[in-house]
Amino acid sequence: MEGPPSTIEVWFQDPVVIHEGSIKVINSKGKEVPVLKSEQDPKDAGHVITKLDKELAPGEFTVKINVIAQDGFIIEEEFRFSISNAAKSESEELKLVKSNVSDGEIHKGPPGQIELWFNQPVEVRAIGIFNSRYQPVGTKRPQVDSDNPRHISVPISNTLSPGTYQLTWSASPTNKEMQTVLNNKQGVFYFAVDKFSSMTPENTGDFDWDTLSFSIGLKQLAYWLTFIGLTILFGISWFYSILLKNRLKKTLQKSTQLLFYLVSLVGMTLLIVHHRLDLPELAIKEFLLLKFTWIPILQIILLSLGMWIKKMRLILFGIALILWPFIIGHASYPRYGGYITMIMTAFHIIAVAIWMGGLFSLIAKPKHLERKEWLQRVGPTFSNWAMISVSVILFTGIWMTVEFLPSTSLESFLESEWGRSLLIKTVLFFLLIIIGYVQRKTVKQLSSKFTFSFFKRVRIEAVYGLIIFFFAASLVAANPSAAEQGVYRETPEAPNNLDLNVEITPLEMGLNTITLEFKENPKIRNVKVELSMPPTWQVENNAFQVGKGIYKLTGNLLHGAGTINMKVKVLMENGKEVRLPYTIVVPGEVRNQSENTSI
C-alpha cells in the first residue's frame, strides 16, 4: 500500500458472530497494534469492520481473524500487507506479450520449441510443459535472443504427440531495480497439437480409506450426549403428560429422568468447555455473552427447574429443546433457509423426542404394572403417535436435506463426512421403521405370547436410536457444502439468446475439463473463461473450439473446494462481448471462510 489504511474490512459468505479479539493487527516486531472495537455492518452480518486507533507507520503487518460461524465453528484466517514509504514506481509491469503457441490454440503439427515475447528484457526462472497425463515434457535451457532480450526460446527435447499441453512459466525483469515481489510474474496457458484432449492424471488405483472416517472429538461427544438427554427428557415428559394425561399415580422411577438429566448436563457442560478451549484469550464476561455460552447455560437452568416443578416440566423441557437449533447445526444459515429451516428443525427434533422418549418410557414401565397390562394401556395410543412422528421426521428430514444440499453426486456425497453421516443415519432410521411396523402389528394382537418379544424389540429400537444420535451429532458438526457440487447460472435468462450448456468433468479439485456447448450454433469469434475465488485468485483462459458451437477448456482449473465464480466471455462476430456469469460449487471439506478483505 502507498499509504496507511483507516479501516480493515472482511466479508464472509454467511453471517458470523464476532467478539473483542475478532480482528487483530500485528506489526513486524510481533506486537499488537491498537484497534477500535470491531463492528458488523447493520445491513450485512457477514461484513466485519474494524477501525484503526492510530495511523500505521510504513512496514509489514499481519491481520489475524477469529470469528464464530452460526453453528459454533471457529473460523481463523490471516493475511499480510505492507505499507511503502516510497512513491509508487512508474516502471512498466512485466507482461507476456505473445508466444508461438497461443492459449486455446490447436497448433498444426508439433512445435520444435516454445517462443515467448515479453514487454521488457526478462530472466526466465522456471518453465515447464506438461502433457495430457500431466507428465512433464523434457525441455532444454531457455535461450535469450541476443538481438532481442525480450524474446526467449525454449527448445523441446522430444517431438510432442497429438493432444493438449499445459505451459507454466515464471520470470522476472533482468533490471535488478525492477525485481520487486510484485514484478516477479508467473503464467499458465494451454495449447494443443493437432487435436484437443482432456488432461487427466495417471490413475494410481489406491483407495483413500480416510474418506470413510468420521471425526470424533469433544464437540461430537457433547452434541451426542445433549441430543440424548434433551430429546428423551422431553419425550418422557410428553409421554406421561399428553399420552397418559397424568392418569397414573405411580409413574416411572425418578432415577430414569435423573439419568437423562445428568446426561444433558454433561453434554452441555462439555459444549461450553469446547468453546472455551477454542477461545482461551476471550474475557470471561464477553465469553458468557456469546450465544454459544449463554444458551446452554439457559438450557441447564430450564432443565433444572423442570426437574423440580412437575406442572411446568413439559413446557420447560420443550423450551430447552427448541433452543437447540439456535446454537448447533446449519439451519440458522440464511443460505440454508434461515428461520423457515429452523422451524422445520424444531419440528424434526420434537418428533424425534416423542418417538425416542416414548420408547424409553415403554422400557421403564411402572413396577406395579405387568407387561401385558402396560402394553394394553399405552401401546395402541403410542403406536399412533409413533406413526405421526415418523411422518414428521421424514418430511422435515427431506426438507432440510434439500435445503442443505441442492445439488450433489454419489461420489461427492460419499466422500464427505456430512454425506456419510446422513446415509448411515437414514439406513438406521429405516431399520427402525421396519421394526416399528412389526411392533404395530404386535400391539394389535395384544397377546401374552408376543408381549415378551415386543419389549425386546423396543430395547433394540432404543439402542438403534442412540446410535442414530451419534451420527446426528457427526452430521451437525460436519459441513454440508462439502457434499455439494454443481454449476449454477446466475442469470435466469441467457442474454442475446445465447443458450449455453455447461458441463464440468470431473467436478472436483484437480484436473478438469469444462465443456461449453452453445445451442443453435451462434456466430461466435472467440470464447474466454474467467475463474475467480476470493480474495485474490483469478485466472482467464481462451477456450478451444472443438466443433460447431462447442468449446472446451482443460487443466488444473478448479484449484480448491468451495465456491468458484465463472464468467464465460463470448466475443460475437459483430464485435460485441457477452458475459455469462456462473457459480461453481466444488465438493470438499472447507468451512465458512472469508470471502473478501479490504484495507
UniProtKB/TrEMBL annotation:
- Give the location in the cell: Cell membrane
User: Which PANTHER family does UniProt cross-reference here?
Assistant: INNER MEMBRANE PROTEIN YEBZ
User: Is Membrane given among the entry's keywords?
Assistant: yes
The UniProt keyword set, sorted, is:
Cell membrane, Copper, Membrane, Metal-binding, Signal, Transmembrane, Transmembrane helix
| Recorded topology in the membrane | Multi-pass membrane protein
Sequence intervals crossing the membrane: 221-244, 256-275, 287-307, 314-333, 339-364, 385-402, 422-439, 460-478
Q: List residues of the Copper resistance protein D domain.
A: 378-475
Protein name, per record: Copper resistance protein CopC
List, for all copies, the residue spans of the domain called CopC. 3-83, 95-171
Q: What domain of life is recorded for the organism?
A: Bacteria
Q: Which InterPro entries match?
A: CopC/D (IPR032694), CopC_dom (IPR007348), Cu-R_CopD_dom (IPR008457), Cu-Rt/internalin_Ig-like (IPR014755), Ig_E-set (IPR014756)
Q: What is its main location?
A: membrane
